[in-house]
């Protein structure tokens, strides 16, 4: 159905308002000059907010995209802002009265008018402090999608006794999914998934050196894991892990609250 057919069907009572809203969301694309087409209704359609990948984008173009997107959407993520541009974007946001949420050790930003809670819960763990930036990207995505995050960083297998109190807390909090970010050999994801009956998302980070450097060993280890219930995203893909885990959590909550 094209746009006219959707509106006519709604007017004639052939489809509901909810159905029309869903169908109309497929047409919501914001064109910005000749360099960008923004999916402003992605969150309505998929539950995942628009994510702007800032790396290699010109600063002026990025500013135009941010302004156009934040007008139409209640939450927008801007990932991997160039370090030289990060403070400029913060100043630009303040000047334009845009509400932002930041993360530790990351240049990813969340622009959100108001964070709404769905009731979903996601645990986010890192093997080391060097992995925190990737975990914070995941946290920002999860919070943009309405999930509460229970985070615990630097609990890798070099001191495996640190893991158990954290796992106990995540179970008691009844989290719906767990994200594990780990570099080096990436073993923490396998350990965590062997201890819980909760979906686990492994994120190999590019922390590491020598043979298997830049996350290659961590990725291979997670993919070869013999523990079930572990899914794996690409190296340093905190954004993708956050989107997947929050989708799982939100769907779980919807199932629990259905009559």
From TrEMBL:
SMART domains: AIRC. GO terms for molecular function: hydrolase activity. It comes from the Archaea. It holds the Pfam family AIRC. One of its GO terms (biological process) is 'de novo' IMP biosynthetic process. Residues 120-259 form the PurE domain. SUPFAM superfamilies: N5-CAIR mutase (phosphoribosylaminoimidazole carboxylase, PurE). This is PurE domain-containing protein.
């Amino acid at each position: 159905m094209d746009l006219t057919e959707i509106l006519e069907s709604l007017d004639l009572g052939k489809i509901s308002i909810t159905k029309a809203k869903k169908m109309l969301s497929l047409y919501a694309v914001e064109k910005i000059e000749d360099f960008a087409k923004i999916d402003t209704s992605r969150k309505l359609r998929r539950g995942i907010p628009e994510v702007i990948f800032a790396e290699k984008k010109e600063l002026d173009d990025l500013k135009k995209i941010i302004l156009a997107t934040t007008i139409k959407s209640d939450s927008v993520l801007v990932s991997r802002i160039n370090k030289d541009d990060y403070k400029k974007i913060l100043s630009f946001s303040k000047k334009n009265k845009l509400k932002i949420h930041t993360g530790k050790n990351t240049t990813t930003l969340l622009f959100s008018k108001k964070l709404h809670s769905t009731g979903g819960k996601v645990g986010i763990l890192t093997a080391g402090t060097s992995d925190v930036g990737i975990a914070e990207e995941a946290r920002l995505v999860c919070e943009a999608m309405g999930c509460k995050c229970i985070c615990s960083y630097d609990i890798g297998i070099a001191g495996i006794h640190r893991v158990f109190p954290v796992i106990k807390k995540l179970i008691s909090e009844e989290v719906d999914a767990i994200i594990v970010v780990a570099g080096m050999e990436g073993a923490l994801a396998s350990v965590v998934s062997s201890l819980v009956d909760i979906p686990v998302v492994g994120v190999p980070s590019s922390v590491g050196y020598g043979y298997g450097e830049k996350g290659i060993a961590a990725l291979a280890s997670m993919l070869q894991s013999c523990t079930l219930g572990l899914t794996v995203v690409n190296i340093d893909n905190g954004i993708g892990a956050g989107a997947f885990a929050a989708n799982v959590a939100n769907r779980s909550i919807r199932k629990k609250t259905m009559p």
